[in-house]
């Protein structure tokens, strides 16, 4: 159809070529920058709250106080920290606490798989398992400090059961004190893993379980071939979070239960930082230990990122 000017109606409704090229480009540019504009306020807050303290700690760790109020710049703080037997003992204790992570993860997966089967009283069992996690750490530490004492509830129960031969001063012996803390961490943190894995199992296709049952797969085979692959990403997240907690979140347990004793046998890196900064007034050494903890955490997060990519490739599109 043509108009009086001799142009077809299709030509009249068509936009000008120049306008048609500019608008999509402007929209695409805005679309690419929009996510960064939305996260910019949060990024600024994170940079101020976390970025500045991190830079400040690194800066302080490289300054060594000298006589007459002067300071020198170098790695002497790190040399002193790495040569300190207390630092090495604390690092070894943190590594010992790392061993609670695989045990806690395995138990959490098994408990979650059992509770997922909708056994009788499963709601009550979920409450019992998760209850320790919501109790404040100082409260847990104080209670268990009375349990693990030489005349505490555990030894009293063993005596009543006729097992007085295995009673022990669990917190008073440097060989067992850190393992007593280990057990308390396992007891309290286990519930978080169980609830986390149960939440993930809520998205599991029931048809997979039913198909495995039709194939006469036992409970352990269903756990290995159906449940574990479905929980792979969540397990990786839980393990990474737990390792970081064992590195930088066990101060409350140690401080309340043992105070680092007996004879500094339960010192952890956080307690070394605390005592160096607020008791010995050596902020430079505390900053150096903090940087070491930060570097170890960065290594853990790097490994976690590599494992995450591998899990994503296993899950596939």
Tell me what the structure shows.
The chain is flat, with a radius of gyration of 29 Å. The relative contact order is 0.11. A hairpin with a 5-residue loop joins strand 1 and strand 2. The mean pLDDT is 85. Helix 4 packs antiparallel against helix 11, helix 5 runs parallel beside helix 9 and helix 11 packs antiparallel against helix 14. It has one domain: MetI-like (MetI-like fold), CATH 1.10.3720.10. With 317 residues, the chain is mainly α. The longest helix has 45 residues. It starts with 8 loop residues before the first helix and ends with a helix. Strands 1-2 form a two-stranded antiparallel sheet. It is built from 14 helices and 2 strands; from the N terminus they run ααββαααααααααααα.
Strand content: under 5%
Decide which structural class fits the backbone: mainly alpha
Architecture per CATH nomenclature, i.e. the level-2 architecture: Orthogonal Bundle
CATH topology: MetI-like fold
The helix-strand sequence is: HHEEHHHHHHHHHHHH
Number of domains: 1
**Rough outline:** flat
Let me know the largest β-sheet.
2 strands, antiparallel
First-last Cα distance: 50 Å
Low-confidence stretches: none
- As laid out across the biggest beta sheet, the strand order is 1-2
Q: Helicity level, as a percent range?
A: over 70%
Q: Which class in CATH terms?
A: Mainly Alpha
C-alpha-based Rg, rounded: 29 Å
Could you give the count of β-strands?
2
Q: At the fourth CATH level, what is the homologous superfamily?
A: MetI-like
Tally of separate helices: 14
Q: What does the average pLDDT come to?
A: 85
């Amino acid at each position: 159809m043509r108009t009086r000017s001799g142009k077809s109606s299709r030509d009249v409704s068509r936009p000008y070529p120049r306008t048609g090229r500019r608008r999509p480009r402007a929209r695409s540019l805005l679309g690419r920058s929009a996510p960064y504009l939305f996260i910019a306020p949060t990024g600024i807050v994170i940079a101020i709250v976390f970025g500045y303290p991190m830079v400040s700690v690194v800066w302080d760790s490289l300054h060594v106080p000298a006589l007459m109020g002067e300071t020198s710049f170098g790695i002497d703080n790190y040399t002193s920290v790495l040569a300190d037997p207390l630092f090495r003992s604390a690092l070894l204790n943190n590594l010992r606490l790392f061993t609670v992570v695989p045990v806690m993860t395995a138990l959490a997966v098994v408990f979650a798989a059992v509770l997922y089967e909708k056994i009788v009283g499963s709601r009550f069992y979920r409450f019992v398992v998760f209850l320790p996690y919501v109790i404040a750490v100082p409260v847990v530490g104080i209670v268990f400090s009375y349990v693990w004492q030489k005349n505490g509830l555990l030894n009293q129960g063993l005596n009543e059961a006729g097992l007085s031969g295995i009673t022990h001063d669990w917190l008073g012996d440097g060989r067992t004190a850190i393992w007593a803390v280990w057990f308390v961490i396992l007891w309290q943190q286990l519930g978080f893993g169980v609830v986390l894995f149960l939440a993930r199992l809520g998205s599991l296709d029931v048809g997979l379980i039913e198909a495995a049952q039709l194939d006469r797969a036992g409970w352990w085979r269903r756990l290995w071939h159906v449940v574990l692959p479905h929980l792979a990403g969540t397990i990786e997240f839980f393990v990474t979070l737990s390792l970081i907690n064992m590195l930088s979140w066990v101060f409350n347990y140690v401080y309340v239960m043992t105070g680092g004793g007996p004879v500094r046998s339960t010192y952890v890196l956080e307690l070394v930082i605390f005592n160096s900064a607020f008791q010995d007034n050596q902020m430079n050494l505390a900053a150096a230990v903090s940087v070491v903890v930060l570097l170890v955490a960065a290594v853990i997060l790097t490994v976690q990122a590599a494992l995450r990519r591998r899990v994503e490739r296993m899950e596939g599109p």
